[in-house]
Design brief:
The complex is a heterodimer. By secondary structure, chain A is mainly beta. Chain A is built from no helices and twelve strands. Chain A is globular, with a radius of gyration of 14 Å. The chains are: A mainly beta, B mainly beta.
């Protein structure tokens, strides 16, 4: 079974700073996907970024980028120029490749990120 | 695109009654929908996976007779909590996935807060 671990329950930074959230996972699969989801106080889950395991290039979405280290099974999220609206719970998630049918997401415990003005 | 709605957003019911929660994909056809439960300050726990036109697959420890899931069309899945008790009070979230879109991505509804008195 796959497991996802987020070792930082809470983090807090000043607005405009850069922050990195950690995530490690355990799997014997070679083909899979990794995600970061954001859950603001509204509790709506929002996809931040996704990474295919077969791609060596790290995914980026504007101010959000990942550091994907497949051998180390590490998938950290970097938020640059942090904004107040980035305050949320962030979940790292793993999913096996869809070629084997609809696959479920396995979530980490979450990191509560607070951006201070 | 990829909007998922849930109804109701909040519901309060008496112990022993049944409550139905609807999950709709508004602008795409969802071949698979997922139901999660989230306790305060915790991660999402997958309850069941439902494919259109077939029986739901429940996660270990989830009572299928208590949490009835119906996925009768490609845009609607329902979760019915039968004979609800106070311990069923929680935040319930659905997500939807399309075989025609980016197949590795789940899109989440805004959640339903259930309170059982």
């Amino acid at each position: 079974a796959q497991t996802v671990t987020q070792s930082q329950p809470e983090m807090s930074v000043q607005e405009a700073e850069t922050v990195t959230l950690s995530c490690t996972y355990d799997t014997s699969e070679n083909n899979y996907y990794l995600f970061w989801y954001k859950q603001p106080p509204s509790r709506q889950m929002i996809l931040v970024i996704r990474q295919e395991a077969y791609k060596q290039q790290n995914a980026t979405e504007n101010r959000f980028s990942v550091n994907f280290q497949k051998a180390a099974k590490s998938f950290s999220l970097k938020i640059s120029d942090s904004q107040l609206g980035d305050t949320a719970m962030y979940f790292c998630a793993f999913m096996k490749h869809y070629s084997q049918g609809a696959q479920k997401l396995v979530f980490g415990q979450g990191t509560r990120l607070t951006i201070n003005p | 695109g990829a909007v998922v709605s849930q109804h109701p957003s909040r519901v309060i019911c008496k112990s022993g009654t049944s409550v139905k929660i609807e999950c709709r994909s508004l602008d795409f056809q969802a071949t698979t929908m997922f139901w999660y439960r989230q306790f305060p300050k915790q991660s999402l726990m997958l309850m069941a996976t439902s494919n259109e036109g077939s029986k739901a697959t429940y996660e270990q420890g989830v009572e299928k007779d208590k949490f009835l899931i119906n996925h009768a069309s490609l845009t609607l899945s329902t979760l019915t909590v039968t004979s609800a008790h106070p311990e069923d009070s929680s935040f319930y979230i659905c997500s939807a996935r399309s075989s025609r879109m980016i197949r590795d991505t789940q899109y989440f509804g805004p959640g339903t807060r259930l309170t059982v008195l």
